Records
---
Amino acid sequence: MKYQDYEDIANRMKEDAFHANCNISVLVEDIYDEEFWRLIIENTKPNLRNKIYFPSYMNKQGTRGKPILKNFKNFVDEKFIICIDSDCEYLYDQDVWYIADFIYHTVVYSKENFQCNYFSLNEICKSLTTKNYDFQSLLENISRIVSPLFYVWLYFKEIKYNDFDHLINNQAFATVLNFEDSQFNSIRDDNILFQSIQDKVNDILEKLKNVMDDGWYDSIIIDGIPNIQNRLIEQYSIRPEDTLSFCCGHSVLDNFVEPFMKKLITILKNLKIQEVKQALSDDKNIEDKIISIEKMANQDIKTKLNNSFIYLVYNSQSKQMEEIKQKLAREINYYLSA
């Protein structure tokens, strides 16, 4: 379509919002993203509650996505905004199109990364087992382990070199984080888990080394990775222990967090039952108590994780979430602030 066509569609979306008694149109990549962005916007601008319009515009294939939304970047304003996953493109492309007023991105790789935040995961854990788990240490340790792979991925993205995309890609992160390959049967098995991930990272890096010139590979390890690490810290305060927030969100959520949570909840549930049996051994109602523990822990983990970002919307526990909200607060000021 022509530039004028997209401008006409953008204006039509604004008109549709007006006729729907809404104050703002919000373009998102997929219908499943609407709830995520709606809650963030309403939390930042409470007067927009029930006043947000999500246009149903799609291309001829029936899909949306960043390439489609990009066509509307020149028409955004306080009444018409775009909200997308960053895919961390801004970390290696200074001219990425979505760094602009009235266009909002997740800062982390995608909204799925917010579903993997340590604070949210512990809240879920408490709700299902009444027990805490140190998710922060867990995720930070894993982040440090996978960080070399992440830095190598960024290195090739920065220099626009794709000959090794078959080795360093989202599937590589999914493979490294695949929890099903791990032997984790006790809350004391975290070192076994870490070693399993480390071995898989080493395997991918070894495969990369075998297809590269030795001098080039060594220069990346000795100079390239430290330079990227220092740049991320200086420009974005992204430390090695933050890496998982900037890896492909689906890889982190689907391959590690969800199966790990299922296993952990089972372990903690069994520990809780053991504690009850010891403490209430003479209580005739002990079976009812155990049934209650089982029922509480058997709630659907996937559903819990799908909504876990809500904890971050309403609690200032994520720097990246707060960054999104601060940008919205600065820019959406028109009659919307009244």
---
Amino acid sequence: MTTNKLNALAMILGLASIISLSSCLGDDNDNNQQTYRELTQLEKQIALSNAEGEYEGYFYFINTELKMDSLETVATISSIDSVMTVTIPTAGLRPRLQFLGISEDKLAIFDKSPSIKLKGVLHPYYNQYMNAGDYTFSYTYVNKTVDETFTVDDADHTIEYKFPDYIRLDNYSYYNCLAEYYNKYFRCNILFDTITLDGMTYTINTCMNFEGKKK
């Protein structure tokens, strides 16, 4: 996948996040708010059934100031319990930790920590007809905290990842937990709040993306 394509997808998803969050936080005098009708149970099931499956794709930073090459990874979506699982390579977060000034010995431990299994419960909220019978399905999702215990050189270590409902980056852009499926492609924002490694907490406060194609 080219860098230009990834940038374009990130911009689209980021813009959708800003629009969605603005509609929720807009004041009573805002006449430009976008409203969505409540989907029927059947429409929600159709949205989940279309997205169900296994995906191969890429994990990458949305923040251009911390640009890095995208990393290959996988994701799965179940229509039975509506759970999205994205496997996140920890190497994708290393530049952010370096930027925050984490010590080299802590980085060495972090490098050997297991991949993150992010699980989120998908909630369809908008189905848009495109053409030739195709739809774009949009979802919000609820994150779950991830914590792991792992061993490095016979010593036990703990790591915990917390994912917020939304974040504001330094450039005052807002991002929240949105995902989208269209024509075998699935993409979602992945928001990081903090990482706690062996009791030390680091504020990540960044938005990353997953983009994948159904197998």
---
Amino acid sequence: MYKVSYKLHKSKKPFFDLNINGTYITCLYDTGATAAVWCSSKKLFEKVFPERILQDSKFSIGGFGGKSRILSDIFRVEGFKLRQIEFLHFPIVTQFNRNFGCKLILGS
């Protein structure tokens, strides 16, 4: 089980900080995103989500300012809880070392 708390930024964009087991990460809430996307380093991803499972399938991702689509790895994180909402099998698509001003994009 991951312990999560958050703090909103004073910004026009919906950025907020999540504290996941003592590690703070900046997140962006994107109502147009169809999946959660990790944008920071692989090392930090492995630290924040030590209990992750690489899935056999890939995710075709686009919408990052370009028209091309990229096949990305999907990891499943077990027991991710965001306040009162617990995700038993939370999928996270990885785009390591991308600079979008946040470490994790959460879709609706």
---
Amino acid sequence: MSKKVFLDPGHGGHDSGAVGNGLKEKDIVLKIATYARDFLSTNYDGVSIRMSRNSDTFVSLSKRTTDANNWGANVYISIHVNAASSPSATGYEDYIWNGNVSQSTKDLQNSIHREMAKVFKSFRNRGKKRANFHVLRESRMSAVLTESLFITNQNDAAFLKKDSNLKKIAEHLAIGIAKYFNLSKKSPSTQPSNSNSVPSGGTYTVKSGDTLTKIAKKHGTTVDELVRLNNISNPNLIRVNQILRLPGGPVYHIVKRGDTVSKLASQYGSTQNQIKNWNKLKDINLIRVGEKLRVK
């Protein structure tokens, strides 16, 4: 059975969260959560992921925990960045509830903290802490709240301004979750790889005038698929700057010794005729080692 991960990017909508050095917490944490979701789903088997919000919308604390509880999530990860009155405050810290928590909750915090320390080696490690935060107290599963650097510190903010760094934070957060569950990595046939198969896909940021119909047509998918991937309750209500997850596009395979079109069709869930037509093959029995074929 899949492990259920509930990712909760803090704040949103009229609640900007911490603000400093030209940044808003609500924007940073939404990116981190989205990148973490995509990294987990792309690289690991046996995991289902939901987010408390997929766009710049306000969600109350009670709704966040209620949604996670009703879904039956196994873990709850609340994602934040820090702020302080002193501009010198710096570093990473994470929290679990300061009440009676299970060993599993402590194990989750330990796993995440170890991974996040790898990202923030050049910053102060402020330690593993405990607090009476609503999302930690009212969630009925192991829950951790992360505080990734101080938006009010100039050096911390410079780190957070780089999208590549937000991806590093997200990836190590995802790895910490995966290690806690002991998730299996996806096999080369389903995981993106330079040497085997390379799917496209990714995310799309909604622009003014966009509709789900337009976005689906542009990216060669369907409105229903976008609704499913992004947990959209009303297809007519998407917002500018909302980040949408896109389905994977064409998948390519580098032919290895022993490969046949029949084997590839079975491996990737396609048909021999589809592979023949996609690659304009004259004879499906004549494929060469090292040849790059579209297989899905």
